[in-house]
UniProtKB/TrEMBL annotation:
Source lineage: Eukaryota, Metazoa, Ecdysozoa, Arthropoda, Hexapoda
One GO MF term attached to the UniProt entry: RNA-directed DNA polymerase activity
Keyword presence, Nuclease: yes
Ranges where the record places region Disordered: 84-104
Name this protein carries in UniProt: Endonuclease-reverse transcriptase
Alphabetical keyword list: Endonuclease, Hydrolase, Nuclease, Nucleotidyltransferase, RNA-directed DNA polymerase, Transferase
């Protein structure tokens, strides 16, 4: 292998390492952003309910037990976790509700 070709291969390897590092950083950032809006509920039996039934169970807990107003439009999806008795309310829409008052 000639010196010029070896130099080119080394430079390409360095470029690939840099690109790989940037991709890992981007993936870490995206994974963090995904988790920001997730809420996990433990100890809820899902009894093999449908997606819509699970969504209703979670919304009922939020509104009745936590006393926080929340409706279906604010939830992107609900899923069962791999772990037993764990439901995950994933991705609130992040939309703020209007309180009916304005700030000046």
């Amino acid at each position: 292998m000639t010196t010029a070709k070896r130099t080119w291969v080394v430079q390409e390897l360095e470029n690939l390492k840099l690109s790989h590092k940037k991709q890992e950083e981007r993936l870490d950032y995206l994974e963090k952003e995904i988790r920001i809006h997730n809420v996990v509920f433990f100890g809820i039996s899902d009894d093999k309910k449908s997606y819509f039934e699970l969504e209703e169970v979670i919304l009922k807990i939020i509104t009745e037990k936590l006393q926080v107003e929340c409706d279906k439009t604010e939830v992107q999806h609900v899923r069962r976790s791999e772990r037993r008795r764990r439901l995950s309310l994933e991705s609130f829409t992040g939309k703020k509700k209007s309180t009916g008052t304005t700030e000046n």
